[in-house]
């Protein structure tokens, strides 16, 4: 690894109303170094990355790039200098090809000659072991392939610093291995990498150095390969926060939810139709559904929440057919939902936490005779913030001003405090720090122990194995059997995630070994 200093940040300060997101941050990244940026939710990681990529300007502090002082004018300026960023949420146009998407971020001189650009995409992607066909439409690509487009887009612009914001959260274990091979190769060739992640084992495996942020300040630096994941977690969250959840087995009770040959034909050209989904969920159990993103998880959540309708009797809650009812009816019957998408579906970005509480919790005595009891709504929002450790300037802050992990905690808390009979939660700990993940897991287990059924849709296999009494996988809109977790191995679940599972019977109770 070369040792010249590529990037140096000194005393960076960034203030938002009621919050100092970066409070005198120092960071030094060497050429060819894979440097992790760690910290609990709201620690200021994304703010710092946005400063490095020129999206926002710091209030104070200096940036030195390859030994020269620098004032970034914006992302285009950063790209020109060789700073590339792959965001958590990809910014690709589904209906354009790989090459067309890449051309959009290139200067006109480079974008004009398409055959030259195609050749360059092939050359770069093959060199880094991330095969990509420039002519393919983005909507036909897997999530892992889409991420490759984002990375290749940066590499084509000769990036010498690549910033990756939680890049592995959307990938299968196999895709993670391919990504890591590419990143190691880039590092060997002198490209520096800034890697934000909450997955500490991955940080240990990949990164040369790590800087830890806490409440906007650097609290430590380490060589992650030389210490344990618990040591790293302690640097992030301090000594008081528990690092794992104790999950005792449960005794499932009465039948709560039953899906019987549930079919749903999506109208979204990029969606997945659901085919003959049969399952039964009992009170007092957590049932998991694994799967690679885009295999019908979102459609299943919508069918269960009432955002889309299915045939009347194909879905029953406590024996009542609800397939063609809307979300309000289902909420009234005790169904709560945590969608994967926090902003836009889980919460309205521009609305305060108070107003976002009212949106789904209005049935919790927050209204009376058609009038909103503002005091009660505020009290409810405060309770969510307090009990779920949501870091926010105030309950009047807009949802969009919260860090990703803190907004996730708010949404889970808002739903869990409603004491639902059925909670359907999609990726509940996505982007959440280790301490907060434990708090969320404890909340789900408590709901279970209070007699609710929890359907956990997740790509995090560790989480599924830890929490679920039964589980299975969804692939291409079809659901595998849901079997006791003790009967499953990671390998078998992996096969099921790829669609290689026994056909399910039409009777949901027979499709659930534990309740047969
Ligand atoms: N546009 C904004 N307006 C007001 N406050 C903001 C804004 N952006 C970020 N903040 C606040 O700055 C702090 C740091 O947020 P940031 O997104 O940098 O954290 P993070 O470490 O990336 O967290 P996470 O791991 O949850 O993504 C948080 O308290 C957040 O609420």
Q: What is the β-strand count?
A: 23
**The CATH fourth-level homologous superfamily of the largest domain:** P-loop containing nucleotide triphosphate hydrolases
- CATH architecture descriptor text of the largest domain: 3-Layer(aba) Sandwich
What's the domain count? 2
User: Averaged pLDDT, please?
Assistant: 90
Beta-strand content estimate: 15-25%
N- to C-terminal distance: 58 Å
| Uncertain segments | 508-516
Return the structural class: alpha/beta
Radius of gyration: 24 Å
Q: For this structure, what is the CATH class of the largest domain?
A: Alpha Beta
* Percentage of residues assigned to helices: 25-40%
Number of H/I helices: 17
Spatial shape: globular
CATH fold category name of the largest domain: Rossmann fold
Largest sheet: 7 strands, mixed
What ligand species are in this complex?
adenosine-5'-triphosphate
Structure description:
With 516 residues, the protein is an alpha/beta fold. The protein folds into 2 domains: 5-237, 3-Layer(aba) Sandwich (Rossmann fold); 255-515, P-loop containing nucleotide triphosphate hydrolases (Rossmann fold). Helix content is 33%, strand content 24%. The protein has 17 helices and 23 strands. The protein has helices spanning 45-52, 75-81, 98-104, 108-111, 114-127, 143-156, 173-188, 200-206, 229-237, 297-305, 327-332, 353-361, 374-387, 404-416, 434-449, 461-467, 490-497; strands at 5-16, 19-30, 34-39, 60-65, 68-70, 83-86, 161-165, 192-196, 209-214, 217-222, 255-264, 274-282, 285-290, 315-317, 320-321, 335-338, 367-368, 371-372, 422-426, 453-457, 470-475, 478-479, 483-484. Strands 13, 16, 19, 20, 21, 22 and 23 form a 7-stranded mixed β-sheet that branches. The model is unreliable at 508-516 (pLDDT under 50). The structure holds adenosine-5'-triphosphate. The site of adenosine-5'-triphosphate has 19 residues, from strand 2, helix 1 and helix 14. Adenosine-5'-triphosphate (ATP) binds at residues 16, 19, 21, 39, 41-47, 391, 401-406, 431. One of its GO terms (molecular function) is ATP binding. Keywords: ATP-binding, Nucleotide-binding. Residues 7-240, 257-501 form the ABC transporter domain. This is ABC transporter ATP-binding protein. InterPro entries: AAA+_ATPase, ABC_carbohydrate_import_ATPase, ABC_transporter-like_ATP-bd, ABC_transporter-like_CS, P-loop_NTPase.
């Amino acid at each position: 690894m070369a040792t010249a200093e590529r990037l140096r940040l000194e005393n960076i300060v960034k203030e938002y109303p009621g919050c100092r997101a970066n409070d005198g941050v120092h960071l030094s990244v060497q050429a060819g170094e894979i440097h992790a940026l760690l910290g609990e939710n709201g620690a200021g990681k994304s703010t710092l990355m946005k400063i490095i990529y020129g999206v926002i300007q710091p209030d104070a502090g200096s940036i030195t790039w390859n030994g020269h002082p620098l004032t970034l004018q914006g992302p285009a300026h950063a790209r020109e200098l060789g700073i590339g960023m792959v965001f958590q949420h990809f910014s690709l146009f589904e209906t354009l090809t790989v090459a067309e998407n890449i051309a959009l971020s290139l200067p006109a001189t480079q974008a004009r000659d398409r055959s030259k650009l195609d050749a360059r995409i092939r050359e770069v992607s093959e060199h880094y072991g991330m095969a990509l066909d420039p002519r393919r439409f983005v909507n036909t690509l897997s999530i892992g392939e889409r991420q490759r487009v984002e990375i290749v887009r940066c590499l084509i612009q000769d990036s010498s610093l690549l910033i990756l914001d939680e890049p592995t959260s959307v990938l299968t274990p196999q895709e993670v291995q391919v990504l890591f091979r590419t990143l190691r190769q880039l590092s060997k060739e002198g490209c520096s990498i800034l890697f934000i992640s909450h997955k500490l084992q991955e940080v240990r495996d990949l990164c040369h150095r790590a800087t830890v942020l806490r409440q906007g300040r650097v609290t430590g630096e380490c060589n992650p390969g030389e210490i344990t994941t618990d040591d790293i977690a302690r640097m992030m969250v301090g000594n008081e926060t528990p690092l794992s959840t104790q999950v005792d087995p449960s005794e499932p009770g009465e039948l709560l939810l039953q899906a019987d040959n549930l079919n749903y034909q999506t109208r979204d050209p990029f969606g997945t139709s659901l085919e003959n989904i049969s399952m039964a969920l009992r009170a007092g159990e957590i049932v998991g559904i694994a799967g690679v993103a885009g295999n019908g998880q979102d459609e299943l959540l919508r069918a269960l929440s009432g955002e889309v309708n299915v045939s009347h009797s194909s879905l029953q809650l406590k024996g009542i057919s609800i397939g063609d009812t809307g979300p309000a009816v289902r909420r009234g019957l005790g169904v709560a939902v945590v969608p994967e998408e926090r902003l836009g579906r889980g919460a309205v970005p521009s609305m305060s936490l108070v107003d976002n509480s009212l949106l789904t919790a209005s049935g919790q005595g927050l209204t009376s005779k058609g009038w909103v009891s503002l005091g009660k709504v505020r009290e409810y929002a405060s309770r969510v913030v307090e009990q779920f450790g949501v870091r926010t300037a105030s309950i009047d802050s807009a949802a969009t001003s919260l860090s990703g992990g803190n907004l996730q905690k708010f949404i889970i808390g808002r739903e869990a405090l409603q004491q639902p009979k059925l909670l359907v939660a999609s990726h509940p700990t996505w982007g959440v720090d280790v301490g907060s993940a434990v708090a969320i897991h404890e909340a789900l287990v408590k709901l279970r122990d209070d007699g609710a059924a929890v359907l956990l849709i997740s790509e995090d296999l560790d989480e599924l194995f830890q929490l679920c009494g039964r589980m299975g996988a969804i692939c291409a809109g079809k659901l595998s059997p849901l079997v006791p977790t003790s009967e499953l191995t990671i390998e078998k679940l992996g096969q099921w995630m790829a669609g290689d599972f026994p056909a399910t019977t039409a009777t949901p109770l027979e499709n659930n070994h534990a309740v047969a």
